[in-house]
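Worked Example 4.2. Consider the chain below.
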Amino acid sequence: MGYKTIEGYANALPEKLKGYIEHFVKVRDEIIIIRQYKCSETVYNYSKDGFQVKAALYQHMINSQVYSITCTATEEAYIKYEPIFDKVGRSFEVR
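Applying the procedure from the previous section yields the following structure tokens:
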């Protein structure tokens, strides 16, 4: 199904991720502004091979096409890498 706005896409995303990622738990989901564009930032936890993992997913919608980048670390290491993930996610640009 096509989405016309990043908000519509972001609202549907958690249910989609639950279908693909085992033990998915949404931590935070918000619309942020990057270079005058609305973007979705979703932070979530899941478990994989006995590890607790935390990820930040940044998504941009341009001309009804969604572009994304995901930054992932173990839950323990996430706090250390969060400033880097935030910088990467907020500097992500589609040209």
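The two ends are 25 Å apart (CA to CA). The longest helix spans residues 75-91. Compare this with Example 4.1 before moving on.
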